[in-house]
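FAQ: What does the model actually see?

It sees only this:
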Amino acid sequence: MRVAVMTAGSRGDVAPYTGLGHGLARAGHQVTLVTHARFAPMAEAAGMRFHALPVDPRTELESTAGRALHRSTTGAGKLVRVIAMARALVGQMTDDLLEAARASDVLLLSGSVGPLGHTIAEGLGLPSVGVYLQPVAATGEFAPPLTGTRSFGRPGNRLAGRAVNAAVDSVFADTIRALRARLGLPRATTRAARRAREHQDWPIFHGFSELVVPRPPDWRPGLQVAGYWWPHDPPRPQLPPRLRDFLAAGPPPVFVGLGSATVPDADQVSESVVRALRAARLRGVIQSGWSGLHADGEDMLTIGEIPHSTLFPRMAAVVHHAGAGTTAAGLRAGVPAVPVPIQFDAAFWAARLTALGVSPGPVPLRRLAAPVLAAALRRAITDPSYRHTAHALAARIQAEDGVSPVLAAVNRLAGTQAG
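And it is asked to produce this:
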């Protein structure tokens, strides 16, 4: 079966699909990762084929419009700005998504391309399955993760969820209208298309653990929580000599990294981080990432990209931007966390870490003063309950297999087509 895994966004929106795709490829399927060109090496390392999409997400985040995201102090405000950015970019990806789909038998669609990919699948007569990293379907259990807000109460959460989904659909409206005409499909609004998917119980697998986000009881049939899809890392990866020597020179350090998130002033954030670590008398491993964090001194080491699965278990705690993927990596490693949520779903995952008992609570970027971060780190490291809880949860999460439910669905589709 020729399987196209389609996604768009930053590294965290891509890395989990290298693990999912690798699992499908090992089972005998021909898997192609369809995403931005900068992520081609990740696909190749996972034994997947690759089809490049235009648009460079890092360039867009560093653009004037991308920098403007930091002017919004609320999750809703950031969402409005990013929707405007995405609306201007989504049409550029249509031709390559369509080309990749024509060479495939089934489409696996992330939430970032779901409405567009589903339209392509419908026009080409291909089966499709959602593979989402966030719980975006409306529910009374929690507020929409993309807004970064607290609960509005059960009715309010459902209403807000539907409103956010309508706003996301608006990103694709113009592109889908033109695409439906191009593929000879009858006219339909994005809202009508969403209702049709829901009425048909279009299957969506979610790449996180029910131990972290239990499946909401008011979700429709077809929405399943599969378990985490761990990024494919090389077997027994070697740490760089400088990092290996740093780890051996003292007690376990604290990891600090903001992944693919950007910040208004990297020097200021870096200074606050270093002051916090030193105030708490902790060593630090600082990952530069897309934000450009940096630190100097015998007690600090700045690093580039290193697999979290290799690095995190060696840390005393992890300070991160609470993206879905990095949150998962910290849980897998069984170490306490101090999340620094910056935008979109980060506040949701930070709240989950706190509720699970593996974090003393978030330190949002706008409140990232050295004394606040130092106090949070002291709590995370000196209170043994955080590490004990994290360690026990990690053992249960590591026993799960998130790939198998998706593989079973693809195998069923393969059998249907063969029949």
